[in-house]
Design a protein that fits this description.
Largest sheet: 2 strands, antiparallel
Number of strands: 2
Number of domains: 1
CATH topology: ABC transporter involved in vitamin B12 uptake, BtuC
Strand order of the largest sheet: 1-2
């Protein structure tokens, strides 16, 4: 029964990791950049959820209605007013390097901005949101908050997949990701598509932030931990692979869950990095990486 419990816990938290990585892999798939400020946008989503829930007193999951559009807007304007000029300057470069430095600076700026305004304190919702559980056979425990996060993660992933496959805008995103110059010649506004892609990625991470708050502390540096894990997961699953992001997240979640049963937390984190380095060495494209671009 302990083994089953570890599997369930690993899949639940791993799905949330995968949801966070999903936004990161979408940005890479379309724009060919790594957003190092991704974790900071997650932090913003978590703070927005926390304050909305604390002030209104309603169920935190309803905050997704507010947080998702808010994060989309922040992502859209960040790309339009901050990243666009750098991308234009390096339009002949397939994978612009300067954007990495810019997003790294944005990450430091946002984290410290929230640290100034909200301090280093940890914030959490009242216990009822995180202490609701289902019990099966008196030994198997399923936390309702983590289960809701699991459902939201897979629903968001399926929704994104259908959007990319079946909508005109989704096909435009894929076309720009495959060849932005040819997409521009065909009449697609490349930089507007970038704005939308970045906004969608931030909206996705906003959903992840909203479902994390019921069972995880909120503080200005919370994005660092999840941002690093998202990067590891994207590399494990394969840059640009939606299914790889979720499956990579579940792998990390299972390693954490099983590792917590037999070894220390520090050694578990070390094991994750060992797997990360091994994948980079033996299969740089990732375990589920695409052989070609979208």
């Amino acid at each position: 029964m302990l083994l089953i419990q570890a599997i369930i816990n690993g899949i639940f938290i791993g799905s949330v990791y995968g949801l966070i990585a999903l936004g990161l892999t979408l940005i890479f798939g379309v724009m060919k950049i790594i957003n190092f400020a991704h974790g900071s946008f997650l932090m913003i989503g978590m703070f927005a959820t926390f304050f909305f829930t604390s002030l209104s007193g309603i169920n935190p999951y309803f905050s997704i209605i507010l947080v998702c559009p808010l994060l989309f807007f922040l992502g859209f304007i960040t790309q339009h007013f901050l990243l666009k000029s750098v991308l234009i300057a390096e339009h002949d470069i397939r994978e612009p390097i300067s954007v990495l430095l810019l997003t790294s600076g944005l990450w430091i700026f946002l984290d410290n901005l929230f640290l100034v305004f909200f301090g280093p304190d940890y914030h959490a919702l009242p216990a009822p949101f995180s202490k609701l559980n289902w019990f099966f056979a008196d030994t198997l425990l399923i936390n309702k908050a983590r289960f809701c996060a699991f459902i939201a993660s897979w629903a968001s992933a399926i929704g994104l997949y259908l959007f990319l496959q079946r909508s005109e805008l989704g096909r435009s995103l894929k076309a720009v990701g495959q060849d932005r110059q040819m997409a521009g010649l065909l009449g697609i506004d490349v930089y507007k598509t970038y704005n939308i892609a970045f906004g969608i990625a931030c909206a996705i991470v906003g959903i992840a932030g909203a479902v994390l708050v019921p069972f995880y502390y909120v503080h200005p540096n919370v994005g660092i931990l999840f941002g690093i894990k998202a990067f590891i997961i994207v590399v494990l699953g394969g840059l640009g692979s939606i299914s790889g992001a979720l499956l990579g997240g579940i792998i990390v979640g299972l390693v954490e869950s099983f590792g917590g049963q037999f070894i220390s937390a520090t050694m578990t984190e070390g094991l994750i990095y060992i797997i990360f380095l091994a994948v980079l060495f033996f299969r740089p494209s990732g375990l589920f990486g695409l052989k070609q671009d979208w």
